[in-house]
Amino acid sequence: MVKKNNFSKNDAIAEIKKWTPPRLHLGKESYVDFMAYDPLTGKMKRKKIMVGRIKGRRAQREYADGIIQRLTEKLLGGWNPWMDSNKTAEYTNFDVVCQDYKTYIARLTKEGSLREESFVSYCSYMKIFEEWAAKSVKYVFQLDKQLISKFLDYVFIDRGNSIQTRNNYLAWLRTFCSWLLQRGFVNENPTAGLVLVNKRNRDKNRTTIDDYDLKRVHSYLESNNKYFLLACYFLHYLFVRPREMSFLRVGDISAKSSALTLHGNGTKNRKSAVLTVPKKVMALMIELRVLSEPSSYYLFSNDFKPGEERCSEKQFRDYWNRHVRKDLGLPAELKFYSLKDTGITNMLKSNMDVLSVRDQARHSSISITDMYTPTNVDKINKAILDYEDEL
């Protein structure tokens, strides 16, 4: 776990401000010198200003006194001769910058500009990156393309993660480095020129749940938590994403017209939509009497019951992982979101027309819906087996 850094940015560059008072040296060579911390070497380095061109010792002393006074004032003000005064931010401690970034994305999430799921992913990426870079990066200016490239190799080769995971890290690093660039922490984006690895001839990985395990999930939740079963229904039959579910209110559901209204401020594409509520889903809501609650209540509040408090989408994943998947012994690749992929796939397999599935899933085109059509057919089709034409 990354420890919270309590230093401010001013504290972070305190080490760079180390210096010794300027002094005059008279002799064969007359000069004023002082020591100042060089962040590139991590050591104190001598700076000399020659005064030998001034004729006469008295004149040299008077000239040197002025230099010493001006240098002392500048050094007291934080000036460092070994770094560009306009690029002080580049010498900020890396861990301080990381903490600032996490504070920034937390605020974005709170304001609704960043999805909670993305926030969780970004924090995870940052944690791994911080731990890996701890030994080689002290100041943010040390982030360069070579270091980023080495980290991506670490993710793909040393950690053994997939190409997709490696690409996900690069996508996040582009966002992070863009944030650094905009705030002057780096003078160029170190991810520029780094490309995503092409996954040739690989379909998007959509893990579906087979009928046997679907029945087990239903039986388990019917006995243990019908309110979470309702959440599963919303994901499986209405294709409402976990974050979107966290914004649903009781008043968004019309029992009379069997419709659910999604409002744009809580949807992935920021567009409002009206979805059909299947009879099976409506029957469970009536059984649980959720529609009798105040219309302003969130549909899935604490314990997945209607309530005044909006709960994070994380509660859906947590309950699935800690209870459903664990108790039923389901494999790790079967995630809560797999219910949505399974629902779309099974609806297509049931010979539901593709336009209806497209609209219910809110896909922008049929081609996206078609991606859910099973292509790994390993059983013969009875209809084709018995088919014959006039030829």
UniProtKB/TrEMBL annotation:
Keywords (A to Z) from UniProt: DNA integration, DNA recombination, DNA-binding
UniProt xrefs under InterPro entries: CB, DNA_brk_join_enz, Integrase-like_cat_sf, Integrase_catalytic, Integrase_recombinase_N, Integrase_SAM-like_N, Tyrosine_recombinase_XerCD
Gene Ontology terms: biological process: DNA integration; DNA recombination
Superkingdom of the organism of origin: Bacteria
One protein family per Pfam: Phage_int_SAM_1
Domain Core-binding (CB): 92-181
Molecular-function GO term, any one: DNA binding
Tyr recombinase domain ranges (all copies): 202-386
Protein family membership: Belongs to the 'phage' integrase family.
Protein's name in the database: Integrase domain protein SAM domain protein
Native source species: Hallella multisaccharivorax DSM 17128
